[in-house]
Amino acid sequence: MKRRIQIADDTPVQEPMLPLINIVFLLLIFFMIAGSLQKLGPFEIDPPASQTAEARPEETIVLWFGKNGDIGIDDLKGGLDRLSSMLPVDYIGRPVEIRADRETEGVKVVALLKRLQELGVDKVQLMTSIEAGQD
């Protein structure tokens, strides 16, 4: 069944816009689903380089550690003294991924690791980035 568009002599021709709108919304939904979003930390860091990389499990707690000693977990931000109140309630048994800035002093990282050990964290991963030419 074909549809005919009747054109009146005095009215302008209007194309049907519904198919175009449908395509735009389908593309929008496709890019929303296909896109990968990464949760950003409370401040920016520049991680050290690494030779290997592995995916982290979903239950991992991501801890951001800045070069000046700032600590961030999810949307919380503070120092080493606030670490216990910033960790989730169910942190025991969950791995903690430390995302430290490459300019952070080693002494500060060791102090953080000791504090995590005191709190009962037994699985710690240090996040690094792969630099170009190391693949």
How would you sum up this structure, described in words?
The model has no long low-confidence stretch (mean pLDDT 79). The protein is α/β, with parallel strands linked by helices and 135 residues long. It has helices at residues 18-34, 83-86, 106-118, and strands at residues 61-65, 71-73, 76-78, 96-100, 124-126. The longest helix is centred in the N-terminal third of the chain and has 17 residues, at 18-34. A hairpin with a 5-residue loop joins β1 and β2 (71-73). The protein is 25% helix and 14% strand. The chain is built from three helices and five strands; from the N terminus they run αβββαβαβ. Strands 3-2-1-4-5 form a five-stranded mixed β-sheet, with no helix packed on it.
SSE arrangement:
Layout: H1 18-34, E1 61-65, E2 71-73, E3 76-78, H2 83-86, E4 96-100, H3 106-118, E5 124-126
Parallel strand pairs: 1-4, 4-5
Antiparallel strand pairs: 1-2, 2-3
* Mean pLDDT over the residues: 79
Categorize the overall geometry.
elongated
Low-pLDDT sequence parts: none
Helix residue percentage: 25-40%
**Largest β-sheet summary:** 5 strands, mixed
Provide the spatial order of strands within the biggest beta sheet. Answer: 3-2-1-4-5
Approximate strand percentage:
5-15%
Distance between the termini: 59 Å
- If helices are DSSP runs of H or I spanning 4 or more residues, what is the number of helices? 3
Number of strands: 5
Specify Rg, calculated over alpha carbons. 26 Å
**SSE ordering:** HEEEHEHE
Task: Name the structural class.
Answer: alpha/beta
